[in-house]
Amino acid sequence: MRTQVAIIGAGPAGLMLAHLLSLEGIESMVIESRARGYVAHRVRAGVLEQASADLLDSTGVGARMRSEGLVHHGIELRFGGRDHRIDFGALTGGRGITVYGQQEIVKDLIAIRLSAGHPILFEASDVRLHDLKSERPSVTFLLDGASMTIECDIIAGCDGFHGVSRDSIPAGVLTTYERKYPFSWLGILAGVAPSSEELIYSYHERGFALLSMRSPTVSRLYLQVPADERIGDWSDARIWTELQTRLAADGWSLADGPVTEKGISAMRSFVVEPMQFGRLFLSGDAAHIVPPTGAKGMNLALRDVSILADAVASFYKGGDTRLLNEYSSSCLRRVWRAHHFSWWMTSMLHRFPNSDAYQTRLQLAQLAYTVDSRAASTSLAENYVGYEWTT
Ligand code: FAD
Ligand code: DHB
Prior knowledge:
Elements: E1 5-8, H1 12-23, E2 28-31, H2 36-41, E3 47-48, H3 50-58, H4 63-68, E4 70-72, E5 74-79, E6 82-87, H5 88-91, E7 97-99, H6 102-115, E8 120-121, E9 125-130, E10 138-143, E11 146-151, E12 154-157, E13 175-190, E14 200-202, E15 209-215, E16 218-226, H7 236-246, E17 259-273, E18 276-277, E19 280-282, E20 288-289, H8 297-318, H9 322-349, H10 357-372, H11 374-384
Parallel strand pairs: 1-2, 1-12, 2-8, 5-14, 12-19
Antiparallel strand pairs: 3-7, 4-7, 5-6, 9-10, 10-11, 13-16, 13-17, 14-15, 15-16, 17-20, 18-19
The structure holds flavin-adenine dinucleotide and 3,4-dihydroxybenzoic acid (DHB).
């Protein structure tokens, strides 16, 4: 088989890239190791930056997000038993975020692709990348027990942190930057109306907690837990008690309800440079991971592929490789900004295992300054809704 662009992975990055390329009239094949049902129901991110929501809208996949997503113009920082609102609307000239589950975006992108008759090859195994330095790279894999080969011009490695693409690059080519955090997030989905209209990021002596949501009837909540924590040790009752303790505020209470899904995610910062090797381009979590505080991961993945789609389109228009050559540096500027923001939010809001009273005072001093100073609040707000470079 032959295609123009072989895309490894049907997460937000791979599916959005396939969609953007098809709008440019460029043919692609998406190769995914998991089943369609698994991909469409994997509960992960939920916050779209302004530009991510605009991208879905402007490319014709925003209809359900616009009717079911929740547009927010602020978040609450909760500490000392009180809320301090960061008003995105006032601080960023009316910009905001949209709360809409990652798996809903994935469903919308799968639907639009399949309805146009373009392929997604689910449940591919033993995926391997070949001849990345040549002008005719290829991908081999097994599908229903049969060996398949796809020849192409370009391979997009959109297969997440644990995928095969990054590891297909020879040793010594990539520089890796990494930080592991000594805690994880325990996340739940619960069938109960959110107890707050806006997200609440709560700093507490027992650890960080976050109230988010997916709809007017579904809450999404997170707790900081030790890095090696096992989900089996957390009964629903224990989770609610801990959430109620860490989210407590004067005159406010957290409503509980049935937990429909729960899991623990490790937290790390990770970047490889460059995000390219020959005709292989890495996008999204395949190239970089942020800790979730600040909700940047999926947004970065969508940015990468919109930069890549422009570069690929320019390549097919007149053989111009300039944008492809600049792909990595164009992405990395935004990636590092988001890394700093996510690291900063994580450091300010979490309880570190060996932290002492001095560190706690520093965190509280930073929180107090962030909510009091217009400059500091604006910095948080403009990064949260998505910082747009002016140069
Ligand atoms: P993925 O979503 O990981 O997709 C990669 C795909 O490749 C998968 O479908 C996988 O099955 C497939 N694959 C893997 N290996 C292979 C292979 N060998 N061959 C073929 N296919 C393969 N981000 C935000 O922006 N906002 C948030 O609010 C947010 N909250 C989060 C909360 C949690 C608890 C977690 C865990 C993450 C959160 N993120 C958030 C991060 C976000 O979910 C990721 O950054 C996003 O999924 C990255 O998309 P991706 O397409 O690059 O990778
Ligand atoms: C959600 C996830 C995040 O990482 C975050 O910072 C805010 C919200 C969410 O899943 O809703």
